[in-house]
Design a protein that fits this description.
39% helix; alpha/beta; binds coenzyme A; Rossmann fold; 6 helices; five-stranded parallel beta sheet
Length: 167
């Protein structure tokens, strides 16, 4: 029998997470079948002005994984690949929902590879029922009083209600 060396495999899952959705959670759970540990990284996308503060976003993610030591959360303000290389992460996980995600993800992955060759990008598909959701579309629906229950964890739903003053 071939002997395989047991080392912990670590991946990072970066994003804005404004807020975390059931689609993100689905990707993290799928990632945990491939990696021993995942660090969910709240990173900066210069094209976005988040609704929730960094602390709120971190707290919302933390509340989803309180009992799971395989998931950690971190905040990163610099280059993502530098962070990944520093902590010896093997991979950057990204979710692919539709063909429309592909162009941007392809560009991001190739640029990340150019910057740091030791880290691979791994793409996972969320479950079919999460294919159409994004943080923006959920915020937009919630802002106008739409019911987004079932698309985000219960505590995130409450945070959205509070933010938009929906009763
Ligand atoms: N379920 C639901 N929504 C999903 C999803 C899933 N499985 N997968 C992606 N999405 C949504 C997100 O909610 C987000 O929606 P939004 O645009 O409405 O907010 C969108 O798809 C993708 O955004 P996100 O995953 O948050 O990533 P991002 O594009 O905002 O993040 C960074 C990009 C942060 C990873 C990138 O800017 C980065 O690496 N920044 C660090 C600085 C750096 O290294 N820059 C150089 C990069 S080459």
């Amino acid at each position: 029998m071939t002997k395989v060396q047991q080392t912990q495999s670590l991946a990072i899952y970066p994003g804005t997470f404004d807020p975390i959705t059931n689609g993100h959670i689905d990707i993290i759970n799928r990632g945990l079948t491939l990696f021993d540990k995942i660090i969910v990284v709240i990173a900066q996308n210069p094209g976005k002005e988040p609704l929730f503060s960094l602390e709120d976003r971190k707290e919302m993610i933390q509340s989803c994984f309180v009992d799971d030591k395989r998931v950690e959360i971190d905040l990163v303000s610099g280059l993502l690949v530098e962070y990944a290389a520093r902590i010896h992460a093997r991979a950057i996980i990204r979710g692919l929902r539709a063909v429309s995600d592909f162009d941007y993800e392809f560009q991001l992955a190739l640029m990340n590879r150019k910057l740091e060759r030791s880290v691979e990008s791994v793409f996972l598909m969320p479950g079919f029922r999460w294919i159409y959701i994004s943080s923006s579309i959920i915020k937009d629906a919630a802002r106008h009083g739409g019911d987004v229950q079932g698309l985000v964890p219960a505590h995130v739903f409450q945070m959205l209600r509070k933010k938009f003053n929906n009763r």
